[in-house]
UniProtKB/TrEMBL annotation:
Amino-acid positions noted as binding a divalent metal cation 2 in the UniProt annotation, renumbered to this chain: 64
Keywords per UniProt: Metal-binding
Keyword Nucleotide-binding assigned: no
Species of the source: Chitinophaga solisilvae
Subunit record text: Homohexamer.
UniProt-recorded name of the protein: GTP cyclohydrolase 1 type 2 homolog
MF terms (GO), sorted A to Z: metal ion binding
Signal peptide range: none
GO CC annotations on file: cytoplasm
A Pfam family reported for this protein in Swiss-Prot or TrEMBL: DUF34_NIF3
Family, similarity comment: Belongs to the GTP cyclohydrolase I type 2/NIF3 family.
Residues engaged in binding a divalent metal cation 1: 65, 103, 327, 331
Length: 364
């Protein structure tokens, strides 16, 4: 198996197009065309983790956090980032990161957090826009189902938790082929009228090339007429954070103790309690203070995330309980998610989980 096959599996689950603009997910170092010896899964690609990869015979490290965020103008070993780069390249170890793209998929990092709490009826807290397009095409009535099925198979037609969604309107198309054409119906040089179906389907932007290829392969016409337009619709399955329901209501302090236990947190920083039961819970892996207002407007009783600043705790304003469990603690189960993705795709492949705890924060 080649490194690129591992990458393809990860990006089929969490497309790079879903990452935030500031991010640097993807292959950081290495040659995707090389054969894989084994894969080491980690939250952070630190020097210790690279040493572990060397010792365990792994030439690919899959991390959640990109070791390189900005450009490197010099690589002299002065910083830990430069030392990781030097060691990885020297030992021919590829480093790949799936970061905010894995955060933003509905079954990503936040879903791992939600599963630890047993949350049900989960939905994306802040869906992203700019990720959907619509295809309009025109097909002879007799061939409409063939084209429709091909587009569905390529990934078009999903709206929320519904699949195979399309709109179909009957009409009449006209065309006249030139002297060197071979029309499916009609004769070259003569205007032809054909009963056609106008077919419309939505698809995520990262599937566009495959969708158009499926259209061309299934459509009977020599020249396929179609339009692709960008949509402003929010993609309900992709975005920041999740919100869901606890199986049963809990006392606020009992809930905080439960959260601390489930996430093995060294401590939980929290806002004043409101004297109410907790049922609806919002959460976000990593630095999630930007979603606080969204969690409040969604009616959450509590919001679990990390990296809240002092003044941001005031923003709870007795409308919600903030539980800051720590950045590492909120994302620690990402390794399990990586393992699940790869073992589901490659049933006879066993990636290794790093034994290094990369959390740079300690608690007394």
């Amino acid at each position: 198996m080649k490194i690129k096959e591992i990458i393809q599996a990860l990006e089929a689950y969490a497309p790079l197009q879903y990452q935030e603009g500031y991010d640097n997910a993807g292959l950081i170092f290495g040659d995707a065309g090389r054969e894989v010896t084994n894969v080491l899964l980690t939250l952070d690609a630190t020097e210790e983790v690279i040493d572990e990869a060397i010792a365990r015979g792994c030439n690919l490290v899959v991390a959640h956090h990109p070791i390189v965020f900005g450009g490197l103008k010099k690589i002299t070993g002065k910083t830990y980032v430069e030392r990781v780069a030097i060691k990885a390249i020297r030992h021919d170890i590829a480093v790949y990161a799936a970061h905010t793209n894995l955060d933003n998929v509905r079954n990503g990092v936040c879903a791992e957090m939600a599963s630890r709490l047993g949350l049900t009826d989960c939905r994306v807290l802040q869906p992203k826009t700019g990720l959907l397009k619509k295809l309009y095409t025109f097909v002879p009535e007799a061939d409409a189902e063939k084209v429709r099925a091909a587009l569905f198979a390529a990934g078009a037609g999903d709206i929320g938790r519904y699949s195979e969604c399309s709109f179909n309107a009957a009409g009449q198309g006209t065309f006249r082929g030139g002297a060197d054409t071979h029309p499916y119906v009609g004769k070259p040089g003569e205007r032809h009228f054909e009963a056609e179906i106008k077919l419309e389907v939505i698809f995520p932007v990262y599937l566009e090339s495959g969708i158009l290829q499926a259209l061309r392969n299934s459509h009977p016409y020599e020249e396929v007429a179609f339009d692709v337009v960008m949509l402003d619709n929010a993609y309900q399955e992709v975005g920041s954070g999740l919100i869901g329901l606890l199986p049963e209501m809990m006392d606020e302090m009992d809930f905080l103790r439960f959260v601390k236990e489930q996430f093995r947190a060294g401590c939980v920083r929290y806002t004043p309690l409101r004297g109410r039961q907790v049922k609806k819970v919002a959460l976000c892996g990593g630095s999630g203070s930007f979603l606080l207002k969204r969690a409040i407007s969604a009616g959450a009783d509590a919001y679990i995330s990390a990296d809240f600043k002092y003044h941001e705790f005031f923003d709870a304003d007795n409308q919600i309980v903030i539980a800051d469990i720590g950045h590492f603690e909120s994302e620690q189960f990402t390794v399990e998610l990586f393992y699940h993705i790869l073992t589901e795709k490659f049933r006879n492949f066993a990636p290794l989980k790093s034994t290094i705890k990369t959390n740079p924060v300690n608690y007394l």
